[in-house]
Amino acid sequence: MLIPHSSVLVAPQTTTPIHLDAPLLNHSNIPSEFVWPDNEKPCLQPPSLKIPPIDMKSFLSRDPQAVEAICAEVSEACKKHGFFLVVNHGVDKKLLERAHKLIDTFFCMELPEKQQLQRKLGEHCGYANSFIGRFSSKLPWKETLSFHYSNDKSTRTVEDYFLTSMGEDYREFGSMFQEYCEVMSKLSLEIMELLGMSLGVSRECFRDFFEDNESVMRLNYYPPCLKPELALGTGPHCDPTSLTVLHQDQVEGLQVFVDGRWYSVAPKEDAFVVNIGDTFMALSNGIFKSCLHRAVVNNQVVRKSLAFFLCPNKDKVVSTPKELVTAENPKKYPDFTWRTLLEFTQKHYRSDEETLDAFSKWLLEENK
């Protein structure tokens, strides 16, 4: 049975909005803008990826044997596919429950109300309905709400954003996600300690680099799709950001590309999905891989997720630590700022598995 909701996906160049609720069940096809090419269509029953969860409590205990074992596991995973899970992370279960509840609160509003936060062309924050206006084909079957977070303790960036854009009625919404982002920033910095040690540099190396992070929080909402075998909630891509810390609801949909095939990542209520992004791949000099992933949809229930994208301060230069540049592994990527890569992905390039290489070539041409 279809779960009721008021979500709307609007295809471009049409006069009638597509309401993803009961009336759509009478339609025999979905709009062509949402249909993906045959070579990219989803695999709806892939095998599950087996990967041991990383115990953050054990890592933070600084027990030498535990730390060594955990770093070895993380190193192996990140060299292979850039993906792992973390458990015993210290994030309050009630905070997660409140965050997921507020996803429903926002996306079940009427479309005009959500459009008060409409994402502007060329910007990365705001409400997006299938990225209508930005792309005209291979549209993702989803709605998103993205907003900026600054780890500057003198500001409350998230809370101020909702108050300014939506008014006093959204103070609680903004306050809750301000708290959520602060918790995610703390967890991300701890993971950066883990990544640093896994790469053989100091525990502080990457933590210090991201201490003044200017990150992005995204709420993902994937409505049911009449033809899930034709559409994708999110197309195959590597995140251009540094690190993604994702919490899924209990509906499967996330898939990761490993050893030439797609694997499903089963939701775990007590775990966060962590994946390496392009910016950290550049920082690691290509040693750790940016994770190629996508999201599929289903024809029964809504799927939701909370994604925190750790990003450096926009003007900080992303440059590989000298310890990771050797004769055997020479410097692979030019230095850049996150601001420049962000602009590239918003104005010049649709993120995919080749974003970092395309950006590097573009940057070298720009700097000639």
UniProtKB/TrEMBL annotation:
Cofactor: L-ascorbate
Domain of life of the source: Eukaryota
GO MF, one annotated term: metal ion binding
Catalytic activity: gibberellin A12 + 2 2-oxoglutarate + 3 O2 + H(+) = gibberellin A9 + 2 succinate + 3 CO2 + 2 H2O
Residue ranges of domain Fe2OG dioxygenase in the record: 212-312
Pathway annotation from the record: Plant hormone biosynthesis; gibberellin biosynthesis; Hormone biosynthesis
Keywords from the named record: Iron, Metal-binding, Oxidoreductase
InterPro entries on file: DIOX_N, IPNS-like_FE2OG_OXY, IPNS-like_sf, Iron_ascorbate_oxido_reductase, Oxoglu/Fe-dep_dioxygenase_dom
A Pfam match: 2OG-FeII_Oxy
GO biological process: gibberellin biosynthetic process
Family membership noted in the UniProt record: Belongs to the iron/ascorbate-dependent oxidoreductase family. GA20OX subfamily.
Descriptive protein name: Gibberellin 20-oxidase
Species name: Vigna unguiculata
